[in-house]
């Protein structure tokens, strides 16, 4: 088959005598490109099947056959049966198709063999080319390796040539140096011979030694010649081997002449002009690298004269014999250090113009300032006092030394910064400044603690004297009339605690000044804060104990005037008057203690706030320091808490003692058992109740103000319970009729309304139950059994109240209630 230009395929035809059908000739090109088996098969059979289809169509026209579609004939079942009787075959082109298919199969087999042969030849050719390619690559690799070897040999050769060149250069440099040294040696020998010619004769020297523009060079050569001559003379005195020549004999003349020449150069030191000092610096730099000139220049500065340094002490300390104050010392140091800084700044300009290495000279100058002038002043300013026998407060005490130390440290630190800004070379100005204060810093914290103790002791002595003077001026006249016992006692003062904190704050600021490391700072701050805790704890504890002494003294006054019943009226009146005075003293002591408690709480709050705002930030960076300080604070305040607790107990005893005295003195038997029970009952509280409530309202006003939080709740709850118990015991002494029961109920209501201000639910409940139990005096005997049906818990206390009814025996209530309540239980 061949493909035409329009894309259709044609076949090559050869005549076949047997079939008359053109055989199909297949070509390899038929299978290239987009090959389709269906198209190939169609091209094979299309020329045979259409003739068959036309014949079938002609034969089927009379029988109603179905339409022929795509070369296939579709007949109904009847037509199939009819066709079975025909003699001609149903598919006559089958032989031609079989022949065509066999011919095509033969051609396809031949084509496959051709393709296999071509593939074999192509594979053989590819293998041959691959072998040639591998051989070429191998040859190329060998060539590259050869190139690398050549490059390595070339690099090695270049390196060898470079090393040889370097060695040649070193030899040339060494030869040049030797030539230069030989030339210099010849010149030195020449100069040495000139100096060795005749003693004292310096007139025949080379022009070098007389040229003013080459003085430095002449000084350098003279120094070398002198060193060589002196060293040679020194070796001459040593034992030598017999036969050695003593060629160095006669160099003593050269040494003498060289020394004289050097002395002449050194005379320039006595001149003071800038240009002359510049020449001196150049000359002396050849002798001792300039150190001699630098030190000599610095030593001749007027700022280091003895008179000047004496004036420093007068400027800072004032007149001899007077006590300097830190403020005056601060002003004096500021003025003096400013003068020193200005002087050093002026010297810096001169030094820069004179010396070839001004930084080294400035280093020597600043070092001289910090090691000579400043220490001599600090030695007079900071006289370390004795810790065993410290100076008294009248002379300033230890605090004066500490304040002067802080002022001197701050001002000297400022001086070191100013000097560093002016310029001091490589000198460690800060470290040098710190070394000036090391003798003071090593024991600083001990002086700080001792100073705080001294201040506390002096303050306590001052307060004692003030209290004593106040007591003497007041006298004891008012005490007999019921004046406060605590008036002569020293009260806790918040202002004093604030002063303690101010001392501690000042000490803490010095700790931050002298302590650069966080751990050291935390230790010092904690030690100082511990002093504050000890001071505040001791002060407020002593104040609470003094307030307790007033309560104790008032209690002793009450016990002193307790009398029996068989006394005369006059004695009873005197005792009553004394009891009133003791009661007034107790009330005054109560109020005084409450004030002490209030001020104690305020003092503790001040310390806690100071710790949180000023101390904790120094302790937090160090592990455990903050927690340990909190524990110390709690421990220090525990003693004050103990004294406060004991005092509050005494306050309750004082209040209850006065309540019992008022009830005993004011409560009458007729208050609860009127002679005529038919009279309209009095709905007012009894006089005793009114007096007790008025007293409690008056005395507890200070407690409501002084106490706070849980302390207030605990105190009022305890007092309410004690009042409830005291009233129960008091009422057990009386007999009640119905009208008296109503007055009792009115008293209980009055007491209940007052204790409601305590905000103590348990106390309120107890007084409510008292109001219920008071009904036993009001109801009829037959109603008693149903009175406590809703509250069986108070039946036992109610039985004791029932026994106080005036008809308890006449109405035989004991037997009735016993039988009734006994059967119910």
Automatic annotation (TrEMBL):
Which Pfam families does the record cross-reference, listed alphabetically?
Sec10_HB (PF07393), Sec10_N (PF20667)
**Claim: Coiled coil is one of the keywords in the record:** yes
The UniProt keywords, alphabetically, are: Coiled coil, Exocytosis, Transport
Has the keyword Transferase been applied to this entry?
no
Domain annotation Exocyst complex component Sec10-like alpha-helical bundle: ranges: 217-816
Protein's GO biological process: exocytosis; Golgi to plasma membrane transport
**Annotated GO CC locations:** exocyst
Question: At the top level of its lineage, which domain of life is listed?
Answer: Eukaryota
- The Exocyst complex component Sec10 N-terminal domain covers 95-211
Q: Which PANTHER family match?
A: EXOCYST COMPLEX COMPONENT 5, SEC10
Q: Which family does it belong to?
A: Belongs to the SEC10 family.
Q: What is this protein called?
A: Exocyst complex component SEC10-like
Q: What is the lineage of its organism?
A: Eukaryota, Viridiplantae, Streptophyta, Embryophyta, Tracheophyta
